Amino acid sequence: MESVQSKVREAIARFSLFPENSKILVALSGGPDSVTLLHTLLSLKEEMNLTVGAVHVNHMLRGEESERDEAFVRELCKNWNVPLIVKRVNVPEVSKGRNVEAVARRERYRLLKEALSEWGGDFVALGHTASDLTETVLLNLTKGSGIKGLRGFLPKREVFVRPLFLVTREEVEAYVKKNNLPFVVDSSNLKTEYDRNLIRLEVVPVLKKVNPALEKAVLRETELLRELEDFVKSEVGSVVSRYLKGKSFCAPVKELKELHPFLLSEVLREAYRRVSGKDLSYKSVEELKEALKKSGFKKFSFHKGITVYKTQEDLCIEPEEDKGQKGFYCEVRELPKTVDTPLYRIKFLLNAGTPLAPLSSFREAGIIVRSRRPGDRLKFKGFSKPLKKFLIEKRFPAHLRDLLPVVELNGEVIFIPELYRKTFKPAENFVGVELEPKGKSSHRQGKDREES
Questions:
Q1: DSSP string, 66-108
Q2: How many Cβ atoms sit within 10 Å of the Cβ of residue 289?
Q3: Do 356 and 432 meet the contact criterion of CB atoms below 8 Å apart?
Q4: Spatial CB neighbours of 346, under 8 Å, sequence gap ≥ 6
Q5: Looking at the domain 4-223, which fold is it?
Q6: Do the Cβ atoms of 90 and 97 come closer than 8 Å?
Q7: pLDDT tens-digit readout, 318-359
Q8: Which residues of 134-165 are buried (b: 16+ CB within 10 A; e: fewer)?
Q9: How buried is residue 62: exposed, middle or buried, by Cβ count under 10 Å (0-12/13-18/19+)?
Q10: Distance CA 232, CA 381 (A)
Q11: Lowest mean pLDDT across 37-41, 173-177, 306-310
């Protein structure tokens, strides 16, 4: 049987956990796994020229037992001459009793990073073993997980490394016994009301009757899944990058429908994540995939501040417009007149340019050039349509919509540059318009759509 040290060496080399001369801060709970990790790294200290320290996070979740663990860790590090940083956080108070486990995990990783920075270290070493990986995979399987869940945690993520990744819990127990190492037991690990404990204490022993080398099998499968995940990530990144422009993602429906269903799901998740910073649920992904199969317009709102919509041609994911953005307003009472707006320079002329309105109507009320307003509608033959919906259908970028000039006459929208013009055929003197787009602000999708 391979020794724990040899498996730790193998993990360090195979997964490039850290180079020689590194400063490693061990997350030390006081349990057998973390004590074994600290002892093993200390045994490799001279061989790899490592600087080894420890950090203990007291979550204040188990009363006197939490204080006992902290006292034990302090004494152990004193006896082993290991520099120690202790962090305390009152998880019950921070979480207010809600989702305690998630809050504890979040606070633990935050404080571990904080301690690493204070110590000036390179990596935080976590005591997770191959047995922990097996439990994680089984737990994720019960919840209906994708590739990421089924491959479990990684041997290395950012500054966090797991040198015991190839070591089983049985091997840790044997190592502790052989080296007569002291440790403490977390009594909460024995309570089966926690899902992970239930899997560890009741499910894994049954599965080991089927395959005594269960952890080895899981390690092999998760390695394959990590390779598959890397491949999928590369393919997904290529598709998403092609259609991600600034803060918005807009891809042709035709091309999305040609993707393999699994790849399509991952593209939708990644595109949404890059635009919003949030994750799409399985149900939301399925809704989008179903919408792609159907014709017509469809709009979704999965998280506040993010709009997802499908037109006949494209599926787009965009941040909603900034409602607090200041608008613009200008009255035109004489001709010729040039109006500067954020996207266009608009010239209003007498009997020249594209006809907009009779001169007589202009003399009565004048023309207003402004930013859009809630309730704006465009008139077509036999029906009208909200301007907001019209802009979505035209795929006009969300972040530019409040900069788009709206030309109004007698309370009615008659013109939006490059997008809409109310039908007008001059039989008398008229007001015309000429445009000068500013920089790359033109988003023409064809001819101006006229009222018909």
A1: HHHHHHHHHHHHHHTT--EEEEE--HHHHHTTSSHHHHHHHHH
A2: 15
A3: yes
A4: 338, 339, 369, 405, 407, 417, 433, 434, 435, 436
A5: Rossmann fold (3.40.50)
A6: no
A7: 887 654 445 789 999 999 999 988 888 999 999 999 999 999
A8: bbbbbbbeeeebbeeebbbbbbbeebbbbbbb
A9: middle
A10: 49
A11: 306-310
Beta strand pairing status for 367-370 and 377-380?
Answer: unpaired
DSSP state of 201: I
**Alpha-carbon span 80 to 30, nearest angstrom:** 13
pTM: 0.67
How is residue 25 written in tokens? 């801060």
Q: Which residues pair with 308 in a beta bridge?
A: 300, 317
| Burial bucket for residue 74 (CB in 10 Å: 0-12, 13-18, 19+) | middle
Residue 451's CB: how many other CB atoms inside 10 A? 15
Q: Which of 137-141, 205-209, 298-302, 349-353 has the lowest mean pLDDT?
A: 298-302
For the chain, the domains span 4-223, 251-319, 329-450
Q: Report residue 145 as tokens.
A: 């997980």
Angle at 20 between CA 14 and CA 22, to 5 degrees: 110
Structure tokens at 375: 């309730």
pLDDT score at 450 = 52
Instruction: Pick the most confident of 144-158, 160-174, 360-374.
Output: 160-174
Please, what is the angle between helix 169-178 and helix 4-14, to 10°? 130
How does residue 110 score in pLDDT terms, banded at 50, 70 and 90? very high
Q: How many other CB atoms are there within 10 angstroms of residue 395's CB atom?
A: 17
The amino acid at residue 415 is F
Can you tell me the distance from the alpha carbon of 116 to that of 92, in angstroms, rounded to the nearest whole number?
24
Instruction: In whole angstroms, give the CA distance from residue 225 to residue 83.
Output: 38
Residue type, 306: I
